[in-house]
Amino acid sequence: MAAARARTTDLSRAEGRTFVVFDVDERRVALPLEDVERVYASVALTPVPRGPAILLGVALTVAVQSSSVTTSLVVPLVAAGVVTLRQCYPFTLGANVGTTCTALLASLATVTAAENGMVGVDTAFAHLLFNLLGIAIFYPLKAIPIWLAERLADLAAESKRWAVVFLLAVF
User: Which of 72, 82, 96 is closest to 145 using CA atoms?
Assistant: First the structure.
């Protein structure tokens, strides 16, 4: 009975506090939300140089071979305020370039001695150049997509219907 009471007391002390659970080396670690927010605040205030952010996006996407996974990893960090939208932007551009590495690797398997043997590689390099050109165009104009994302987020926060309208209009 005393053990049950001690357990109840411990739970009652934890009540009202939010914990964030992390998986560290296959062990679960729970940290109070206040501590996590403090770490997030210090990280969010740290400027992320755009070159390394782009390279990190490329490297992570090459490792997991999916820009969707890479982007899905960073979206909660932006939502939690760990990373700002401006810091996330070059990372996302790098993820788009990282997706081309999968196509490049796949195209190498299609190389043959035949006359058309390099068509796959040509197409993969066209994909890479298209994404690099996209960075060359849209990175200097970053204020526009960031502004649009912020306005859409404001509209979606106001009413979920705007998020649905956006999805239906785009897709």
Answer: 96
Place of tokens 């700002």: 84
What single-letter amino acid sits at 12?
Answer: S
Q: Which two tokens stand for residue 102?
A: 């999968």
Over residues 88-117, mean pLDDT: 82
Contact 96, 58 (CB under 8 A): no
Among residues 86, 80, 79, the alpha carbon closest in space to that of 46 is found at 86
Single pTM value for the model: 0.65
Instruction: Tell me if 120 sits within 8 A of 107, measured CB to CB.
Output: yes
Question: What is the bridge-based pairing of β-strands 27-32 and 19-24?
Answer: antiparallel
Buried b (16+ CB within 10 A) or exposed e, 69-92: ebbeebeebbeeebbeeebbbbbb
Q: How far is CA 16 from CA 12, 31, 44, 108, 140, in A?
A: 8, 14, 26, 56, 46
Closest among 95, 14, 101, 105 to 61, alpha carbons compared: 95
Phi/psi at 128 (nearest 5 deg)? -60, -50
**pLDDT digits 0-9 by tens, 107-146:** 888 777 666 667 788 888 999 999 999 999 988 998 999 9
What the block records as the tokens of 46 is 């740290």
The pair of three-digit structure tokens given for residue 162, joined into one six-digit string? 């705007």
